[in-house]
Amino acid sequence: MIIHNLETENSILNQFISEIRDGTIQKDAMRFRKNIERIGEVLGYELSKELNYLSKIVQTPLGAKELKVPEKELVLCSILRAGLPLHQGLLNYFDAAENAFISAYRDHSEDSDQFEVVVNYLASPFLKNKTLILADPMLATGKTLENTLKALKNHGEPKQIHIVSIIGSKQGVEYVKDVFPENTQLWIAAVDPELSNRGYIIPGLGDSGDLSFGIKV
Question: What pLDDT score does 111 carry?
Answer without folding.
Answer: 60
